[in-house]
TrEMBL record:
Keywords attached to this entry: DNA recombination, DNA-binding, Plasmid, Transposition
Annotated Pfam families: DDE_Tnp_Tn3, DUF4158
Organism field: Enterococcus faecium (Streptococcus faecium)
GO molecular function: DNA binding; transposase activity
InterPro entries xref list: DUF4158, Tn3-like_transpos, Tn3_Tnp_DDE_dom
Family recorded in the similarity comment: Belongs to the transposase 7 family.
Annotated Tn3 transposase DDE domain residues: 583-717
Keyword DNA-binding: yes
Lineage, uppermost ranks: Bacteria, Bacillati, Bacillota, Bacilli, Lactobacillales
Protein name, per record: Transposase
The DUF4158 domain, residue ranges: 9-172
């Protein structure tokens, strides 16, 4: 069967990984362990090499699924495991492929006995239909290839050449994209299409060197009221395009996210080169996803502003205590002296005022009392009473926050949302007095102490608004209140399957636990109690574990790295030659060839020598988080436009994944890493990165010294 040649998706290393036979026990037990019937069929052959060859053909058809002639290498441990079951020498396989007819006769018999099916046009159409449906949900090529191979195995279809599968996946993905683009484009009105054209062709009024799309994609910068208002301006611009009417809710979330990421990388000139359906669809999906990101960023700025407000209050209190420390100590001394004088006057029945003036002059005493009144704070004081002056810094953006963002909650949090509506209404009407019947029960005790004026009934507008905004932040972060149009803070129900979808799919969940909560919690409770009983019975036998008076104690672990090992490690590092990071990266590229995976997105051409240098510079700029502009300034001979071009057209997601696969596979084959482990475990932790540019996610953390940075979650394998 001939299939039209399309684009190949995998590198040679990735093809080898797909066709490689693992040596783990699960694969051996599942696919390479023969039943009694299998052995009876295998043993019909007289010669050892034919018995072993037939058995190996049967095994590899089961997994990985290709014919024996397509498999380049079979691990010795697998051959030994198979030969041991049929009682022959593993070396007899060397004599098996003597006659090609024998190979095909055995394959024909296996197809007949085990109902394996040859991959023909009929199987191609069936598989393509399956892949097309999957590609509507997920356009990732590697994922589709895995699904394709699993589907063929499940239906006992002998796998064709892997390049055939690649081309089939490519065609299915292309057809799915075409269908998606047509679906989205048809739901757009002519007016909406004109607006979409406008954002990639028209210049922004206040920034003549940028298109509207470029303006919309600008990073937010550091969190501030001004940044908040800029984000809201972009959010309202997109909302003004009325894209919410476009019907995309029936499209799979994964596919929408993939197309959105694609849209975030394309510059306006790239969009202009696309066909209309593709251009409008990717733009629409990207802008709809961008509204979610902008909504999240807007509330994140509010989160940071509230944190900043409270932090400034604490610092103000600390500063007051620091400045007034000497005066407060002086007042304590005065209080002690006056107290002792009063005690003496009472015990000895002396004139109080004479005794008092013997320790402090009357005028000094009066001045001290007045000064103490100025220094005095409320009896149960905290820093919240110092925040009233900070109210107006919040007012720079909070009216816009409450006007633009819409909040929903469960019934338990309705009082909070009622308070939000009251403040929103006061902002619109210009009223200053908070209604006496405004809800206050949801406000914490700390804020309530400052909520009322001196008369005890009038609500202080400043403190009421600050308290509501603080409680709103806390409830949104806790998930009790959702934000309409947000991704990070959306309603919890949106994370779940709909009831209809769940009823249709729950029978195929393949979960190893009961879907009944009562059954599940009963089983877990029983299992937990059994383990507790075992622990109680064996606590004396466990190393470093003790159970005393109902308390479980674990001994502190000793240092993993002895001092001798640290010294030896330091001596090894001293032996390594000093090398520039740029030279090291070029050496790795030369050794592994990972740079060849950065093929051009439009013509699939590999980078030449000059382009490779530009790619390495772009990788360094991104990896060191200095950005392409500063990298261009620091690299003689390279311009920002060159770096931007390769990052746009060569450093897309698939290319990055392929390049990373080359590096991981190369590392996996090395002998030295095996001294650390086999790579089946990992250590995960947050890594603090100092940021040299303005970022919404940058914050100060005294634990890591001065300056702002961000914490990135990463992992290192045991190898």
């Amino acid at each position: 069967m001939k299939i039209a040649r399309g684009r190949e998706l995998l590198t040679p290393e990735q093809r080898q990984a797909f066709m490689q036979i693992p040596e783990d026990e699960w694969i051996l037990g599942t696919y390479f362990t023969f039943s009694k019937r299998d052995l009876e069929i295998v043993n019909k052959r007289r010669r050892e090499e034919n018995r072993l060859g037939f058995a190996v053909q049967l095994a590899v058809l089961r997994y990985p699924g290709w014919p024996y002639t397509h498999i380049k290498s079979i691990p010795d441990s697998v051959i030994q495991y198979i030969s041991k079951q049929i009682g022959v020498s593993p070396s007899s396989l060397d004599h098996y492929p003597q006659r090609e007819n024998t190979l095909w006769d055995h394959l024909k018999e296996i197809r007949s006995e085990y109902d394996f099916v040859t991959f023909t046009l009929s199987e191609y159409r069936m598989t393509f239909k399956y892949l097309h449906q999957l590609a509507l949900e997920n356009g990732d090529a590697i994922h589709l290839l895995h699904e394709c191979i699993d589907f063929l195995r499940k239906n006992k279809i002998i796998l064709p050449a892997i390049t055939t599968l690649e081309r089939m996946v490519w065609e299915a993905r292309a057809m799915a994209e075409k269908k998606l683009f047509n679906t989205v484009s048809k739901s757009l009105t002519n007016e909406q299409k004109e607006k979409l054209e406008g954002i990639i062709t028209s210049q922004h009024p206040s920034e003549s060197n940028k298109t509207i799309l470029g303006w919309l994609k600008e990073p937010p910068g550091h969190p501030s009221p001004e940044t908040f208002l800029k984000i809201i301006e972009r959010l309202e611009y997109i909302r003004g395009m009325d894209l919410e009417t476009v019907q995309i809710s029936h499209l799979h979330r994964n596919r929408l996210l993939q197309l959105s990421r694609l849209g975030s990388r394309y510059e306006p000139y790239a969009f202009r080169d696309f066909q209309e359906n593709k251009r409008y669809s990717i733009l629409t999906i990207y802008l709809l996803q961008l509204t979610q990101e902008l909504t999240d960023k807007a509330f994140e700025i509010h989160d940071r502003q509230i944190l900043s407000l409270l932090s400034k209050g604490r610092k103000a209190q600390e500063e007051i205590q620091k400045q007034n420390g000497k005066k407060l100590n002086e007042k304590v001394i005065h209080f002690t002296n006056i107290g002792q004088a009063l005690i003496k006057a009472r015990e000895e029945k002396l004139d109080v005022f004479k005794v008092l003036e013997s320790v402090i002059e009357w005028n000094t005493f009066v001045s001290s009392v007045e000064e103490a009144q100025e220094l005095a704070r409320p009896a149960d004081y905290d820093y919240l009473d110092l925040l009233q002056k900070r109210f107006y810094s919040l007012r720079k953006y909070t009216p816009t926050l409450l006007r633009v963002l819409e909040f929903h909650s469960t019934k338990a949090n309705e009082p909070l949302l009622q308070a939000v509506e009251i403040i929103r209404g006061m902002n619109e009407s210009g009223k200053r007095k908070v209604p006496d019947d405004s809800p206050v029960d949801f406000i914490s005790k700390r804020w309530k102490r400052h909520l009322y004026e001196d008369d005890g009934t009038t609500i202080n507008r400043h403190y009421y608004e600050m308290a509501v905004l603080t409680e709103l932040r806390e409830h949104v972060r806790a998930g009790d209140v959702s934000i309409v149009g947000s991704r990070q803070y959306r309603d919890f129900e949106e994370y779940l399957f709909s009831e209809d979808t769940w009823n249709q799919s729950k029978g195929n969940t393949r979960l190893s636990v009961s879907l009944s909560f009562e059954d599940y919690i009963t089983e877990r409770t029983s299992s937990f109690n059994e383990r507790l009983k075992w622990l109680a019975a064996n606590s004396n036998k466990l190393d470093g574990v003790s159970l005393e008076k109902g308390k479980l104690s674990l001994a502190r672990l000793e240092k993993d790295v002895p001092e001798e090992a640290k010294k030896f490690s330091a001596s090894l590092y001293q032996m390594l030659p000093r090398i520039k990071l740029t030279d090291l990266l070029m050496d790795v590229a030369h050794i592994t060839g990972f740079h060849e995976q950065f093929t051009h997105a439009s013509n699939n051409r590999k980078p030449d020598k000059e382009e490779t240098i530009i790619i390495m510079a772009a990788l360094l700029g991104m990896g060191m988080n200095i950005g392409l502009s500063k990298m261009a300034e620091a690299t003689p001979g390279l311009t920002y436009k060159q770096l931007a071009n390769v990052s746009q057209w060569r450093m897309y997601e698939d290319a990055m994944n392929k390049a990373q696969a080359i590096l991981v596979n190369f590392h996996h084959k090395l002998q030295l890493p095996f001294y650390w482990g086999d790579g089946t475990t990992s250590s995960s932790d947050g890594m603090r990165m100092q940021l040299g540019v303005s970022s919404l996610h940058a914050d100060a953390n005294p634990h890591y010294g001065t300056g702002k940075g961000a914490t990135i979650y990463r992992f290192t394998s045991g190898k």
